[in-house]
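quick q for whoever's on today - can somebody do inverse folding on this one?? i tried earlier but teh output was garbage lol. tokens:
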């Protein structure tokens, strides 16, 4: 699990068909083979470390669902090590399992903040709510405004200075992970239609009538 609070902006030093080599002076000394590392929002497994360098493998499935296959040597990436019980949950819970690749539609720059508009496929619109959480290239952000197939997000100066979103430009592809709570609710509604499963004991279910009784 991750929080979406970026620890370091690393850099790709080599990009193969199914492997990335990263320069990560902040994260590398703390990583061991087998550890999880979120690279621009994608949970990958560390396969080798040497000094300030980290190697991670990328499966064909990951390449098909993320923008990692378009990375080249010299490009910056957002890095976050896995969440531990010793670290505060300052962002929101992320799995590092990207839902889709979105596209930056517009970047409106202001003196104290930027507004970023990101488009995504229509099949994901039910997973986003206004003032809810969304991860863009691994960065935990809050949805300021919501449209049918796009979100507008305010970027504060700290985020601009400390993530790759400072270089966001129209047309750029970004990895999107929607809030895991919304995905579980959506799946439950899909399977049950909002009704208790057949054969289950719903005596303890919270209905509108029961809620009125409790509040009266």
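ok took a stab at it. sequence:
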């Amino acid at each position: 699990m991750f929080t979406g609070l970026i620890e370091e902006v690393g850099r790709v030093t080599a990009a193969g068909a199914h492997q990335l080599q990263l320069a990560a002076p902040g994260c590398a000394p703390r990583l061991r083979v087998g550890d999880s590392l979120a690279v621009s929002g994608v949970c990958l497994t560390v396969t080798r470390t040497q000094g300030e360098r980290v190697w991670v493998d990328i499966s064909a499935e990951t390449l098909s669902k993320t923008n990692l296959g378009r990375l080249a040597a010299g490009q910056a990436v957002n890095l976050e090590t896995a969440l531990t019980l010793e670290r505060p949950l300052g962002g929101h819970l992320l799995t590092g399992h990207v839902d889709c690749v979105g596209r930056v539609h517009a970047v409106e720059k202001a003196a104290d903040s930027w507004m970023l508009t990101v488009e995504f496929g229509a099949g994901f619109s039910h997973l986003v709510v206004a003032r809810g959480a969304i991860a863009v290239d691994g960065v935990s952000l809050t949805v300021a405004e919501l449209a049918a197939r796009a979100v507008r997000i305010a970027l504060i100066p700290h985020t601009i200075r400390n993530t790759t979103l400072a270089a966001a430009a129209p047309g750029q592809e970004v990895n999107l992970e929607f809030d895991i709570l919304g995905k579980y609710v959506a799946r439950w509604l899909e399977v049950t239609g909002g009704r208790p499963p057949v054969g289950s004991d719903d005596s303890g279910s919270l209905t509108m009538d029961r809620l009125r009784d409790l509040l009266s």
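fwiw The chain has two domains: 8-81, 100-192. also The helical segments are 60-65, 157-162, 180-192, 208-215. so keep that in mind when u check it
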